[in-house]
């Protein structure tokens, strides 16, 4: 496997904010992704839940499923409850040919709540850290039964967001059981250095999200004490090449590390304000310029 380029459906239809892109069908999204030059996508809520049916829409467009999001509640619910839901998503993604499953710990998360994202960031207790790390390793073992890997998604509004939290998670989990998803937008939004994270954990990064940040709008989220979803609506995120992040040194680090897997464009925006097809084309052209892919 080499490096493949994909794009997430969240620019067309937003699972956390269903009013964004409510008018857009998954067929439109898949067609426009392919037309823009991408070959992969992640699972969106509008996608068919039957693997055979979903394959029938992907194959004619030359598209495949790179991964999909799973919300874990290892710190706030019994492990068996998370494991049951995880197995269902894992089996589906395996049937779609995915090699990784994106895991985000949603215990105490405020990412979908109307609470100021910078002012009320949640944290774990020592007991919850233990539940998280041991639980993730168990999920990693389950994924290995399907010859897949879990990739943990550090995310704004959760207890694994900052450099220190990512470092602790990596230190307290076994590398062969828990891998990392590298998301440029969430790191910069949190005030972290994405290049530092990539260089430190290159050998554990097995999935990548490229998103950019509009600096002024990010600063407004902080000064106006906005929630994460208010920031999304305000246009904090955009596609690579349209914001403040310099992707060239990041790409150099990725390329020289011999990374193999997917780089996914993921830029949740209001599609009535940011035409998803035009932004997908913009992202694809920019990524070709800096990567040659």
> Considering DSSP H and I runs of 4 or more, what fraction of the residues is helical?
40-55%
**Poorly predicted ranges (pLDDT <50, ≥5 residues)?**
none
What class would the helix/strand composition place it in? alpha/beta
When the domains are counted, the total is 1
CATH H-level superfamily title: Divalent-metal-dependent TIM barrel enzymes
Strand content: 15-25%
The biggest beta sheet reads:
7 strands, parallel
Topology:
Blueprint: E1 3-7, H1 26-36, E2 40-42, H2 51-58, E3 64-67, E4 69-72, H3 79-95, E5 100-105, H4 126-144, E6 149-153, H5 163-171, E7 179-183, H6 184-190, H7 194-201, E8 205-210, E9 212-213, H8 215-223, H9 228-234, E10 237-238, H10 247-256, E11 261-265, H11 276-291
Parallel strand pairs: 1-11, 2-3, 4-5, 5-6, 6-7, 7-8, 8-11
Antiparallel strand pairs: 9-10
Cofactor: glutathione; Co(2+); Mn(2+)
Domain Xylose isomerase-like TIM barrel: 33-275
Pfam family, one: AP_endonuc_2
If you had to describe this structure to a student in words, what would you say it looks like?
The chain is of the alpha/beta class and 293 residues long. It has a single domain (3-291), classed as Divalent-metal-dependent TIM barrel enzymes (TIM Barrel, Alpha-Beta Barrel). It has 11 helices and 11 strands. The protein has helices at 26-36, 51-58, 79-95, 126-144, 163-171, 184-190, 194-201, 215-223, 228-234, 247-256, 276-291; strands spanning 3-7, 40-42, 64-67, 69-72, 100-105, 149-153, 179-183, 205-210, 212-213, 237-238, 261-265. The strands form 3 sheets. The chain has a 7-stranded parallel sheet. It has a two-stranded parallel sheet with strand order 2-3. The longest helix has 19 residues, at 126-144. The relative contact order is 0.16. The model has no long low-confidence stretch (mean pLDDT 97).
């Amino acid at each position: 496997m080499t490096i493949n380029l994909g794009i997430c459906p969240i620019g067309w239809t937003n699972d956390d904010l269903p009013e964004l892109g409510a008018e857009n069908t998954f067929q439109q999204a898949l067609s426009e992704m392919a037309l823009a030059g991408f070959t992969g996508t992640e699972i969106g809520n509008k996608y068919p839940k039957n693997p055979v049916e979903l394959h029938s829409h992907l194959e004619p467009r030359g598209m495949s499923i790179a991964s999909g999001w799973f919300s874990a509640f290892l710190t706030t619910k019994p492990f068996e409850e998370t494991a049951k839901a995880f197995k269902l998503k894992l089996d589906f993604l395996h049937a779609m040919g995915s090699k990784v499953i994106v895991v985000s710990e949603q215990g105490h998360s405020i990412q979908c709540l109307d609470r100021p994202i910078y002012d009320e960031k949640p944290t774990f207790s020592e007991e919850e850290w233990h539940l998280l790390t041991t639980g993730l390793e168990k999920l990693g073992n389950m994924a290995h039964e399907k010859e897949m890997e879990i990739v943990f998604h550090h995310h704004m509004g959760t207890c694994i967001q900052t450099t220190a939290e990512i470092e602790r998670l990596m230190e307290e989990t076994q590398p062969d059981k828990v891998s990392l998803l590298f998301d440029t937008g969430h790191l910069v939004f949190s005030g972290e250095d994405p290049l530092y994270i990539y260089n430190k954990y290159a050998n554990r990064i097995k999935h990548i999200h490229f998103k950019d940040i509009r600096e002024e709008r990010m600063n407004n989220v902080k000064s106006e004490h906005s929630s994460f979803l208010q920031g999304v609506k305000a246009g904090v995120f955009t596609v690579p090449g349209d914001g403040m992040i310099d992707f060239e040194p990041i790409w150099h680090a990725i390329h020289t590390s011999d990374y193999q897997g997917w780089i996914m464009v993921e830029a949740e925006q209001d599609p009535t304000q940011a035409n998803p097809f035009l932004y997908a084309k913009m992202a694809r052209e920019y990524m070709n310029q800096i990567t040659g892919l």
